[in-house]
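TEACHING EXERCISE
Course module: macromolecular assemblies
Task: Read the component lines below, then compare them to the predicted structure of the full complex.
Student: A.B.
Group: 4
Components provided:
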Amino acid sequence: MMNTNTAINYNIIAVDFDGTLCAECFPYIGEPNLPLICALLEQKKLGKKLILWTCRCGDRLSEAVEWCADQGLTFDAVNENLPEIIDLYGSDSRKITADLYIDDKSALPALTAI
Ligand SMILES: [Mg+2]
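Instructor-supplied answer key:
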C-alpha cells in the first residue's frame, strides 16, 4: 500500500561509478573524477542524499564502495532506494528514485536526438 506522505523535501542524487566517479576501467577502478567527487561532497554537506547507482555487484561493488569511502564519499544507499522512498511508495522499485542522475551514459532528452 502506498504511503501518501509527501513531506520529503530533499534532493536525491543517484551517481554511477564506472566512467563517472572514476575513469572507465571495469573490472578495475580508474582514476578518480575529483571535480565530481568534490561536488558531491559539497552537496552532501548541504543535506542532499547520495545513492551509488551502478551495475557492479558482489566483490566489484564492495571494492567500489570502499574506494569511494577512501575518497571521503559515503552513500545513503547503494543500488537501492532510500528507506524513506521505500516507505513512501511501499516497495523498492528496480529504478532508483532520484532528482538527479549522474551517469556517463546519460543524455538530456530535450537536447538529444536519438
Ligand atoms: Mg558508467
